[in-house]
């Protein structure tokens, strides 16, 4: 097995050469369980952890390794964990706001080429949620693809896909069934050597089942959805990169019950290109499409050109994004003040008593 099988190419070789690290070898992060990692050097798979210097220098958790990252590791021999010394600059980074009250960025996957947004032909299918996922993926630098699983449960999957095509402009949509294999051949074009595909979606939509079917063996644990409410159980408890026989790599992620935007201004424009184009006709350049006079977007809704629920979801995502940007700015300012206080305190401690 070589590093090329895991996506290594000349671009990564150049980034390694430019890295501030004189020792160690390149490796890709395959899995993460809290602070424990599994990495592959091309020669072997190793358990790994972060070195103290990397942890100290990190300004946030987003600076620490994530599944899919290319890193530089040192390994002192059998029986010891490899130490992750450096994280190479990412070409893409799929992020969301971490669940909870703190305003922290959570890296869901790094260096991903394509993200399969997996939903299912059941109660999970929610166009507004799909728009939210698409916005996050565009912002990450990866390309979004919607995969509608459990097509065998739908009597008219084609009509549902047609409706979503009108709403998710420019995003490929595939209806598949891991049960009978329908539609899976169309996914093969993404699974070529060196390409990394991440799967995201709610619990129980069939992400792990889909991976097992494409891998030709059970590599991810699965469980049936609850019959009482149709909701899924968390079967994936950690992120893991799986190498397929075709040469592609699939990154499974735990089901997300909370999905909040982190930074998605550009992704929002790509997710709603119709609104962006219509807004060119607004009287005011900074029109928020609320109650401003001469709003072309409002006029499009009234004429039937634009669906009102699409504008409603656009406003919701825009307000959420603006809110978290303000919170991040306040937190950044507080962190900077705290850092300077620590530096001044350390300076005074070192020079106390010197004249």
SSE arrangement:
Layout: H1 10-18, E1 25-33, E2 36-40, E3 45-50, H2 52-57, E4 70-74, E5 82-87, E6 93-97, E7 105-110, E8 114-120, H3 127-140, E9 143-149, H4 157-167, E10 173-175, E11 196-200, H5 207-215, E12 239-243, E13 249-252, H6 265-271, H7 273-278, H8 296-303, H9 308-351
Helix pairs in contact: 3-6
What does this structure look like?
- The protein has 355 residues and is of the alpha/beta class.
- It has 3 domains: 3-87, OB fold (Dihydrolipoamide Acetyltransferase, E2P) (Beta Barrel); 93-252, Rossmann fold; 272-355, Probable gtpase engc, domain 3 (Ribonucleotide Reductase Protein R1, domain 1).
- Helices cover 32% and strands 21% of the residues.
- The chain is built from 9 helices and 13 strands.
- It has helices at 10-18, 52-57, 127-140, 157-167, 207-215, 265-271, 273-278, 296-303, 308-351, and strands at 25-33, 36-40, 45-50, 70-74, 82-87, 93-97, 105-110, 114-120, 143-149, 173-175, 196-200, 239-243, 249-252.
- The strands form 2 sheets. The protein has a 5-stranded mixed barrel. It has a two-stranded antiparallel sheet with strand order 6-7.
- The termini are far apart.
Strand content: 15-25%
Spans with pLDDT under 50 lasting ≥5 residues? 225-236
CATH superfamily of the largest domain: P-loop containing nucleotide triphosphate hydrolases
Number of domains: 3
* Main sheet overview: 5 strands, mixed, barrel
Molecular shape: flat
Q: What is the rounded distance between the termini?
A: 63 Å
Number of helices: 9
Q: Roughly what percent helix?
A: 25-40%
The overall pLDDT, averaged over residues, is 81
Order of helices and strands: HEEEHEEEEEHEHEEHEEHHHH
- Give the CATH level 1 class of the largest domain: Alpha Beta
CATH architecture of the largest domain: 3-Layer(aba) Sandwich
How many strand segments? 13
| Strands side by side in the biggest sheet | 1-2-3-5-4
How would you classify the helix and strand content by structural class? alpha/beta
Q: Any idea of the CATH topology of the largest domain?
A: Rossmann fold
What value does the Rg take, in angstroms?
A: 23 Å
């Amino acid at each position: 097995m070589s590093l090329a099988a895991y996506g290594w190419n000349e671009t990564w070789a150049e980034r390694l050469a430019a890295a501030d690290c004189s020792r160690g070898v390149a490796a890709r992060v395959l899995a993460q369980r809290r602070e424990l990692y599994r990495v592959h050097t091309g020669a072997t798979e190793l358990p790994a952890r972060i070195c103290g210097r990397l942890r100290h220098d990190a300004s946030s958790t987003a600076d620490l390794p994530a599944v899919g990252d290319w890193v530089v590791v040192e390994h002192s021999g059998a029986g010891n964990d490899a130490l992750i010394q450096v994280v190479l600059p990412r070409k893409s980074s799929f992020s969301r706001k971490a669940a909870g009250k703190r305003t922290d960025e959570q890296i869901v996957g790094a260096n991903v080429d394509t993200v399969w947004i997996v939903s299912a032909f059941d109660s999970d299918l929610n166009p507004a949620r799909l728009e939210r996922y698409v916005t996050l993926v565009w912002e990450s630098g990866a390309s979004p693809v919607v995969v509608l699983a459990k097509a065998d449960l739908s009597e008219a999957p084609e009509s549902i896909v047609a409706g979503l095509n009108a709403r998710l402009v420019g995003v490929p949509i595939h209806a598949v069934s891991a049960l009978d294999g329908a539609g899976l051949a169309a996914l093969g074009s993404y699974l070529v050597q060196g390409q990394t595909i991440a799967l995201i979606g709610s619990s129980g939509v069939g992400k792990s089942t889909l991976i097992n079917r494409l891998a030709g063996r059970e590599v991810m644990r699965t469980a049936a959805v609850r019959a009482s409410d149709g909701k899924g159980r968390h079967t994936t408890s950690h992120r893991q990169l799986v190498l397929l026989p075709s040469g592609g790599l699939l990154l499974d992620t735990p089901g997300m019950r909370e999905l909040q935007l982190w930074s998605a201004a550009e992704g929002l424009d790509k997710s709603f290109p119709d609104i962006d184009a219509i807004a060119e006709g607004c009287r005011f350049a900074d029109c928020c499409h609320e109650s401003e006079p001469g709003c072309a977007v409002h006029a499009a809704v009234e004429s039937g050109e634009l669906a009102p629920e699409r504008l409603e979801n656009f406003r919701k995502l825009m307000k959420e994004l603006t809110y978290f940007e303000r919170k991040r700015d306040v937190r950044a300012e507080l962190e900077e003040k705290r850092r300077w206080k620590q530096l001044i305190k350390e300076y005074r401690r070192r020079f106390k008593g010197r004249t």
